[in-house]
Structure formats: structure tokens, C-alpha cells
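Bench log. Compound arrived from synthesis this morning; before running ITC I wanted a structural hypothesis for how molybdenum atom sits in the protein. Inputs:
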Amino acid sequence: MQEKKISACPLNCWDACSFKVTVKDDRVLKVDGNKDHPETQGNICSRGRMLEARTNSDLRITKPLKKVADEFKSISWGQALDEIAEKMRDIKKIHDPTAVFHSHDYSNNGLLKNLDQRFFNCYGGLTEVVGSLCWGAGIEAQIWDFGNSESHAPKDLFNSKHTVIWGRNTASTNIHLFSHLIEAKKRGIHVTVIDPLNHKTTRIADMYVAVRPGMDGLLAIGILKELKRMNLLDLNFIEHYSYGFDEFENILDEISMSEIVASTSVAEKTITKLAAIYSGGPTSTYLGLGLQRYANGGHTIRLIDALVALSGNVGIKGGGANYANLPVSQSFDMKNLTLSSKKVQKRTFTRMNQAEEILSNEGTPIKMAFVSRGNPLTQLPDTNRVEEAFTSIETLVVIDQFMTDTAQIADYILPCTTVFEEEDIYHASMYHSYVNYGPKLVAAIGEAKSDRWIWTELAKRLGFGDEFSYSDVEFIKMGLKSLEKKGITFERIKQEGFIKLPVQDVPWSDFHFKTPTGKYELTSIRAINEGKEGKLTFQYPLEFDQKEYPYHLLSKHPERSNHSQNYHLINDDQVIIEISEKIAKDHLLQDDDRIVVHNDRGEIQGHVKIMKNSHADTINIDEGRSKPFGGSVNILTHSGQSKIGLGGIQYDCLVNIRKI
Ligand SMILES: Nc1nc2c(c(=O)[nH]1)N[C@H]1C(S)=C(S)[C@@H](COP(=O)(O)OP(=O)(O)OC[C@H]3O[C@@H](n4cnc5c(=O)[nH]c(N)nc54)[C@H](O)[C@@H]3O)O[C@H]1N2
Ligand SMILES: Nc1nc2c(c(=O)[nH]1)N[C@H]1C(S)=C(S)[C@@H](COP(=O)(O)OP(=O)(O)OC[C@H]3O[C@@H](n4cnc5c(=O)[nH]c(N)nc54)[C@H](O)[C@@H]3O)O[C@H]1N2
Ligand code: SF4
Ligand SMILES: [Mo]
């Protein structure tokens, strides 16, 4: 019999959609949106629908694999787990737990996925990754400014007069915000998009500003200068609720408007219009994550935050510097779930620079690595070094559903289940504040097991099985402990399908900030207390104005794939290199011509597609492509880190091109 069951999208995405999934004879037939969900309202994207294919695909890995004489052989779970556990025991005896490295990202947002931390904490420690390829610079910036990174509830957009979409490609990455923008326009709300790339989101804008990559902070200074010139700064906010304005004001005076126009590629009259938009609020600002993947990314977010705050758009309905929504994940009882108190020894490598740290000979050598919920060979910057580093490790264990570039070089591959084959609850700390339920709908394909099962079986063999003697539901309840007193229980989430978490709809409405001074901090005391520069300044990106490499290379997220997850399912092997009209003209290029994009780190080949009206010196190659489909753009990107926060700087990347 065919049935429609509630489920949830597990993907790392702004929208955290609720699903209705059609199931028949223990098989998922179709994934649709759940019309009853207040935020996602039945509307889902192709990545969500493709989770059916990710579950049923013939390309799934269905048995544990071991590499023997350069070939993968299937082995039993018992053998795989016994051998891996034995290696872990030996490594701990000969070295210490930090000789084991866990490289992971966040490809699945299930609560139980955090049990990997519980496992390594019970093992006694490890070398773990810190920082973020995704949003690290901006998160730290907002913590310095506001004390946390908090967003307005999605529908608060309709209380705005103006909205500014600053570097967020909503049409493909945040589809519910995109739908709201279309509705907002109908209601007379003015939409501005600031982005070097003219993509689907910019096409619906009333005003489009093609800023030079990495220069948004300077643009924010320009707008603030205009507001100051016209006496339109919010003096009440400055006097009562901010700290450090006097110091910051000097910076507004030091940088000239002509310098700003020249460096940002934004005309002065556009800057004046933007000043009118910010003073004629409520104006909401939706920041993307791309614009902070630069060495100066934290500074960029801080300067835009300052613009939002000093123009009177913080703490009011229809306003906000909407970046992430951390109170969502902060609602869960992670300490309880991960047993962080058990960790004895640990060392940290940064996510972006893990390759160099593996290859360095300092301290305990890395003898074994686990990769789960991540595909470093495609997603980490500077691919060639990443491949060298992971290949150098004696034993590499990859837990995945498919044969990724990283799995290809593994010694063991442990096949894991997909969202519809396991029970969990899902949330994203990016946009709305609902947690969604995802039941186990079908039996796992082949011998695939959940990540939870794999950690449990290894824990038993390593002598701490007791800490894993809980069912999925018992573990979920552990993570919900902190929410129980607020009436949010597993039973309710399961029965209702989704529940709103206790997260404010309009953050900072009491103008009490979670900073050391309790004020909005233009000079960050938290930073100063950590021995860092707390003063708000403008900084240039790392790679800027180099004759040999005149073009900015961006690598935005692909529309039809969450990062590397779908290229093999849609069989997309055409690398598309989007170039501006000016670059096309200068190099006499036309659509479909083949070119090479190169810098000192590597090169990548593909087909030209000319972008109209984008920033003149900008190129884009979507990220996420694995080797069989043309190779990762990360061959070209830099493994450095942002000056504020531990953020990746993949967009801080200069290149040149040549025709083939
Ligand atoms: N389809 C799809 N959706 C996704 C994902 C996916 O892989 N595919 N991934 C999810 C994840 S993990 C994340 S982090 C989010 C990210 O969501 P977004 O932030 O919307 O997207 P990104 O691709 O990270 O960032 C690219 C955007 O930043 C702009 N940009 C780059 N540099 C600059 C700059 O200097 N200034 C300005 N103003 N703009 C700049 C790019 O032109 C592009 O519009 O998307 C989520 N949603
Ligand atoms: N150049 C460039 N690089 C980027 C970015 C960019 O914009 N440009 N974006 C960065 C960003 S924002 C992010 S978030 C990262 C994302 O980087 P990753 O999270 O590494 O990328 P994904 O391809 O989403 O997922 C990695 C793997 O997780 C597997 N997986 C899925 N579900 C599960 C599960 O339940 N358990 C286990 N064990 N595995 C699972 C998938 O099959 C996939 O192979 O990439 C970053 N890299
Ligand atoms: S990928 Fe994002 S938009 Fe698409 S279904 Fe999942 S949560 Fe919704
Ligand atoms: Mo991300």
C-alpha cells in the first residue's frame, strides 16, 4: 500500500524543510513538501526531491569495503569494525589519542550525528577540526558586535520598507526567502541586491549593485559616511546602546569617498541611494555567507552590522542584520549528548588548513583518520595539498553513502544510511526556528548502517559500550533535556511533525546585547580580552591587485546539488566557467569556448558562459564537483583563514585565464 509520511530534509541548508514522503513496499517513491509546515509551506527544492535518488541509487555503497592491493574488497561488518578498533587501541598504546584525526563537516543536520563527538570524547580525545569553511568569520564578527548571531523570524521581512540582500543567492540557496522576496515586491517592499554576480536573485531586484568582491566593508563605510553627512545616523542608538562610536567615527572620516568609489566599483550616486534606503527604514538586511569567505570577511560583516545598527535598524520589526540564527542550535543539550567532560586529550587542526597540519611533522603524528559527514578532497581549499595529506595517512576510514573523491583514497569505507533509513530530528541554525521530525521510513539498502550504529559498535569493541547502550530515541531525548521544561519533548515533535523552538522573532528588541558592556560594540571588548584587535577597521582581502592574476574567482554553491552530493546523480560533467562581459571581450571569448583558469595552486578547464552585468573582473565556477565530473574548483582556492574568527577564505582567490 502507498502511504504519505512526514519527514524532514537533513541537508545543510538555510531552509530546513518539512517533507511528505510517499512510501510503498519498503521503498521511497517520491519526496514532496509538507504544506502544513508554517515556514516551508510545502515548497521544496530539487536537492530535497533528489534525496529519493540518493536513497535508491544503484551507486550506493552497500557493503563495508577494505582496500587490498589498491582494490576495494567487500568484507563483513565484524571484520571491518574489529580491525579498525584494534588499530585504535594500538595507536592509543603506542602514541596517544591525538594520533587519531576526525575530519568532518555538516552534510547532515540530524541531532544524532553529533554522537561522533561522544564517541571520541569517550575514546579519551582526538585531533579534531575547528573553525568553519562555511560561516566562521561572520559568526565571530556578530558575536563581537551583538554577543550572538541572531536572525529575525522569516515573515518579519514583511514589516520592512526596504530589504537588502547582501551576497545571498536566495533563488538557489534559500528558496523560502526568495519566495518571500517575490511576495514582498508585490506588497511594495523595495528589494536591493548587492552581489558581484548577476544571478537569479539579482534579476528580481529593484536595484542591483555589482560590488567588487571583498569590498563590501568599504561600501558599508561609504554608506555610513553619506548618512553622517546628511545627519541621518541614529544618535539615540549611538548614545544609549552602542560602545566605541568615537573611535569608529575617525575611520569614516579618514577614508575618502573617491577611494571608496574606485575600490568598490560602486558609483557615488548609488552609495547615496543606499544611504536613503538605510535611513528610510525599517530596512532588513539578509547577509549571505559567500561575502565573508575572505581574509577580511569578519571585518566585512562587522562593518555591515555597524551600518545596520547605526542607521537604526537593529532591534526593530522589519530590520536586522540577518546572518545566522544560533539560538536554534543553542536550544539543544549538546553537553549531555556528547559527554564533553570525558575528553582527556585533544589537539585541534583548523578545517581550512587541516592538510598542512597533517603534513607537518610537529607533535604526535596522525596515524589514522576518520572522515564522516564530509568530503574533504572536494570541499576543502587547495585540493592538491588535501589529497597529498590524506593519502599520507596510514589508515583512512571514510563513512559515506557514495564513492566520493575522499572515499576513493580510503583504506576502509563504511556504508551509512540515508535520512529515510534512520530516525532523527533536524534543524538548521540559519533561518527559521523549527525543529522537524524524520522517522525511519524504509529498511536500509544492503548492509548500510546509521552513523550512530557504527560509533556504538566501535565503542563496544573499545570498552566504553556502556556510554552507547541507548536507543536512537533515548539519545534524541538526551539532546532535548534542556527543552523539556519548556514543554518541547520528543513525543510532541514526533506527533506534531515539527515544533517552533523558544527563539525570539525580533532579536535585540530590548536593546540589551550579550556583549561584555551590554551594548552594541563597535570596539569589541571580547576581542580585546582575547588579546585581539577590537577596533573596527577596514581591511583588504588577502589576494588583491595582482598583475599576474587579474580576476576574482568566486565558487558559489551549485543550484542542483548540496555541495558535492548530487553531481553523480544528475551526471553533470560539464565544468561551466562564468566570466564577465568585459573578460570575454578582452580575451575574445564566446559562450562554449574552452578555457583554463589557473593560478599558482593549480588549474581547471571548462566551458565559457558569459554573465551579463556582473562585476567586470569576476569569474565564477560552482563548487562541489568531484574528479569524475571535471574536478573541484578548490584546486585553485587558498587554505588561509579569516582575520576575525576561524573562517575559510575560498573566495579570496585571484586567477588568470587562457584559451585552449
Ligand atoms: N542549491 C544549494 N543551496 C545551498 C547549498 C548548496 O550547496 N546548494 N549550500 C547550503 C550552505 S552549506 C550554505 S553555507 C548556504 C550559502 O548560501 P549563500 O550565502 O547564498 O551562497 P554561497 O554560495 O555560500 O555564497 C555565494 C554568494 O555570495 C556572493 N558573493 C561572493 N563574494 C561576495 C562579495 O565579496 N560580496 C558580495 N556582496 N557577495 C559575494 C556570490 O556571488 C553568491 O551570490 O547555502 C545553502 N544552500
Ligand atoms: N570553493 C568552495 N569550497 C567550499 C564552499 C564554497 O562556497 N566554495 N562552501 C563551503 C561550505 S559553505 C560548506 S558547508 C562545505 C561543505 O562541505 P561538505 O559537508 O564536506 O560537503 P557535502 O558534499 O555536502 O557532504 C560531504 C559528504 O557527506 C556525505 N553524507 C551525507 N549524509 C551523511 C550522513 O548522514 N553520514 C555520513 N557519514 N556522511 C554523509 C555525502 O555523501 C558527502 O559525500 O564546503 C565548503 N567548501
Ligand atoms: S535542500 Fe534546503 S530548500 Fe531544498 S528541500 Fe532541503 S531544506 Fe528545503
Ligand atoms: Mo555551508
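What the model suggests: The CA atoms of residues 237 and 309 lie 8 Å apart. DSSP finds 25 helices and 27 strands in the chain.
ITC booked for Thursday regardless.
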